[in-house]
Amino acid sequence: MSYPDPRYLSDRGEVSALHRPAPAEPDTGFVGASTISYVATEEATGGEYGLYKVDMGPQTMGAQEHFHRTISESFYVLSGEVQFYNGERWIKGGEGDFLYVPAGGLHAFQNDADEPLSMLMIFSPGAPREEYFEKASEYVERNREELKGFQVRHDTYFTDMLDD
Questions:
Q1: 56 class by beta-carbon count within 10 Å (0-12 exposed, 13-18 middle, 19+ buried)
Q2: What is the C-alpha separation between 55 and 1, in angstroms, rounded?
Q3: Are 148 and 156 in contact (CB under 8 A)?
Q4: pTM to 2 decimals?
Q5: Which domains, from first to last, does the chain contain?
Q6: Could you give phi then psi for residue 86, rounded to 5 degrees?
Q7: Sign of CA dihedral 158, 41, 62, 29
Q8: What are the tens digits of pLDDT across the range 70-103?
Q9: CB-based contacts of 38: which residues, under 8 Å, 6+ apart?
Q10: Cα–Cα nearest to 99, from 126, 65, 76, 72
Q11: For residue 54, which of 70, 34, 79 has the smallest C-alpha distance?
């Protein structure tokens, strides 16, 4: 395996690092007892990846079984315990565990434990996931067709919606 083709062609480096101080509060609420903090959006990384911190309360449903067609998704557990669905079965993840899901890979997650969970989610390449996080709960309350359109627009295909 080799490195990708160069994307920066100058002989000298440039000042281009981005520092974002930690926010006082998470950027958004989400369905249930979860919050999502935007660590690095696709806008901030020029579309290379998106990095988000997810904090879930005890006994909190996460995402049901789904897949993405254009992006991979990775999870890194910071603290607590999570149940990951790897497309075949549920597996327990704990502090330091990592799960990579390539495009097309079925996956789901939830916190079945009596303690909170904190994990990082990485989408690659970066995609504008913020609207999905901010408005998903609103669309759940709408009719099934509007919800499905919203999910497809955000490259999220829930297996229970595929037969519609």
A1: buried
A2: 36
A3: no
A4: 0.87
A5: 28-161 (2.60.120.10)
A6: -100, 20
A7: negative
A8: 999 999 999 999 999 999 999 999 999 999 999 9
A9: 27, 28, 52, 130
A10: 76
A11: 34
